[in-house]
Amino acid sequence: KARTEIGGNAEAAWAALRDEAAACTRCPLYAPATQTVFGEGPVDADLVFVGEQPGDQEDLSGTPFVGPAGQVFDRALAEAGIDRDRVYVTNAVKHFKFEQRGKRRIHSKPGAGEIEACRWWIDQELMLVKPRVTVALGATAARSLFGRVVTIGKERGRAQTLPGGGEAWITVHPSFLLRLPDEDAKRMEYARFVEDLRMVRERMD
Ligand code: URA
What we know:
By secondary structure, this protein is of the alpha/beta class. It has a single domain, classed as Uracil-DNA Glycosylase, subunit E (3-Layer(aba) Sandwich). It has eight helices and seven strands, in the order H-E-H-H-E-E-E-H-E-H-H-E-E-H-H. The protein has helices at residues 7-21, 56-61, 68-80, 112-129, 139-146, 152-155, 174-179, 183-203, and strands at residues 47-51, 88-91, 98-101, 104-107, 133-137, 160-161, 167-171. Strand 6 (160-161) and strand 7 form a beta hairpin. The longest helix is centred in the last third of the chain and has 21 residues, at 183-203. The radius of gyration is 16 Å and the shape is globular. Bound molecules: uracil. It comes from Sphingomonas immobilis. This is Type-4 uracil-DNA glycosylase. Belongs to the uracil-DNA glycosylase (UDG) superfamily. Type 4 (UDGa) family. Residues 38-198 form the Uracil-DNA glycosylase-like domain.
């Protein structure tokens, strides 16, 4: 995509959108969370990754994928030959949903209503960035992007078309890899994840 096609307008529109999202009250998740974690990356990126929702560290820092899942994501991207600085990374839900247990905040899965309420933001982000390819990391992202329940095992590894047009790929969420109890399974699933990312990388050539 030529930079001139976008100019400064998309950047300004994106910054305005991010500022607006900082005050979002579309669903109740904003109240206990520290802040909105908006997408990050170049507005003219060809590739967008969509995660589930910020985790504890993302909630505190205000940046997507900087915690443990983000570290797995960064490593897998690098192994697949994708430069994180050149991709736009965001989440289906922009506030951390958690349960307080003593001092710890334990991740809770966002529900259909929260995904639906937050879809407005991701639609705007995708309209501004206009990526060539969008990647759903996990079922929540896929549900947000496709507007239906998605079975990752059945739908990963091939190009899909988003309801509004545009190519999308579906793969696992990096935190799924962290949760696998067995080291062999972890290694195997990680390799499959990198392989999915490589296929995406090849679409960008
Ligand atoms: N998990 C996500 O889905 N997104 C983040 O930003 C961090 C962890």
